[in-house]
Structures are given as structure tokens and as C-alpha cells.
Amino acid sequence: TTRKNDGCLVRGNRGEELFRWVLNQRGLTDTAIQNVINGWHESWRRHRQRLGQFDEYWISLGRRREEILKVEDPELVIANFISQLEAEDATNANQANCRSALSTLFQLQGFKKEKINGVALQQIMKKPQAGMRKPIKEEQIWNYDQLLKYIKSKSDQKVQLSEIEFLGIVIATIMGYSTLRLIEVHRAIVSKLPKGCWQVKTAMFKGHDTGVTVIFRPLDDLSICPTQWLSCWKNRRKKKDEKLPVWWLYSKNRVASYEETSKAVHIVMKACKIPAGYTVTSIRSSSMTKSIDQGATKTEINRATRHRKGSQAVANHYDKNLNDKIRTRLAKL
């Protein structure tokens, strides 16, 4: 495992070095390049890995890095690279991510999309893209009440909880009652409002590329209420630490990383006896499955999940109803 991690680190560093070098050659300053990287957020880690993979391929052809700047037909380069990956039995996701990272690199060099994504490349990508599509099928999902019952059992034991498990419960309750993704919760700004309410303000980059604000109000059962758990999480702090970021870990003396928040939620899921193999995102699925079983309307589900752009437009401009009703039902065990 250590050797594999070391290999990923080396490949990622190569990819980042290539990326920075190409943009620097175009004339972008280090500050401008860093701003481009920041715009990718957590997906930058995937981009740098795939660019490192391309750098290895390019050098294996006996080509020098300087020759990338002289490429006249970027579609040809990408098509040959993806075809080589397919011959090496690379996964569909790997091929798609490599295509995405390399296309972006050439766009940042100044090539237009039409010059990059031609008919030949589109034909080559049909197979991996088809392989990545999730089929519509019936799947068994764990019962959301498993999570709620566990959280309820820990309500009177907050002092005994480890910091990482406490973090996992707080994030799990937010995800379950808001259907926000983990990355959206991780980047969120959380603030207390009057009357015991809490506001979670974050940005959605998947699907909608917009800001979203969720307001939690106290539920009848405070033991499984996000407002109660957020209050207790914040009350652990000393007065001088009140302005620290919401996901601050005293044990690490820094903000929890995305990986650490994921690990924290997985610890909670394991404690709930949720079968191994389920991702953190399954909290969203389980929450919405319970809402559907409780008779939530299609409009309520669309509004709560923010899946469809059409319903998002309605929610933004016309549908001002709150999601309190659906959260109240979710809290019923």
C-alpha cells in the first residue's frame, strides 16, 4: 500500500509539474496558475494524476516535454493516448478522466474545443462513456432509521465520543437532512441563527454550479436533530476559539481534510452496522428512499435533492416552500 501511495504521489507531482510548466510557457503567472488550480477544488487531485499518466506515456514515445507546445493537432494526441490506454485494459473511468484532463490542458494552451473534440475522438470515447453509465436497476439500500437510532443512542454520551466520531455524526446528520454531498458539507460555512436555528451555506459545483443555503430548525426529537448536534459540536470550544473553522480538529490542531471527514462518516456507518461497500453518498440515497416511502411528493423530492436543473430553476425563482416538512417526517422513527 505504501509503495502504491508513493507511486501515486510521484505521478501526481509529475502531472502538476507538467501543468504548471505548460501554463507558465503560455505566459500565466504563478498566481494565475494557482487560481486555475483552485477552481477545480478537490477534482484537481484527479487531474494531476491523469496528467502525470500522460507525461509517462509521452516520454515513453521518446518525446520531449517541449514538443507538447508544438502540437498542431491535439485531437490526434488525445485519441492515440486513449487508444493506448484501452489496449492496456485501463478502466472506462481512467480513460474518461485522462481525456478530460488532457482536453483541459490543451484548452488552456489556447486551442478551441472544436479543434480538440473532433469526430474521431468522439467515436473512440463512445465505448468508455457507455461503460460508465449507471444502468437503471433495483438496488437494496440500507434503512435510514439505522443511522438515526445510532445517533439517538449517542445523544447522551457526547462527552465520551471521540472527536472523529463526533465529527462523523454531525456531518452525517447534515447530509441526511439536507441531502448535500460530503464535499459540499466540507466546504460549507456554518453559522448560528436566532431561535436555535443553524445555517449551512455552501457551493454546488456538480450539476448546478451555484450557491446553496440550508437552514435547519429544531425538530421535536432533539437527540437526532442537526441543530442540537451542531450546537454541541461548537460548544466544545473555548471562547477564544469561536472563530475557528467549523470542522476544526483539536487533536490535529488544524481543519479536518476531506479524507478525514469521509473517514469520520465511515466510522459512524460501520458502528450503525451498515454493510461494508456502501459509500458516504449512500446517506443521501437512504434519506430520500425513506422520504419516498413516507409519501413525499415528486416536487418535494426534486426540491430536496436538487437533482434536476428544471426543478432547481423553479426552486430558485418560484418555489419558496421550505424543506422543513420533509425533515420532520425523516426524524420519525
UniProtKB/TrEMBL annotation:
Protein name (database record): Tyr recombinase domain-containing protein
GO molecular function: DNA binding
GO biological processes: DNA integration; DNA recombination
InterPro entries noted in UniProt: DNA_brk_join_enz (IPR011010), Integrase-like_cat_sf (IPR013762)
Keyword terms: DNA recombination
Source taxon at top rank: Eukaryota
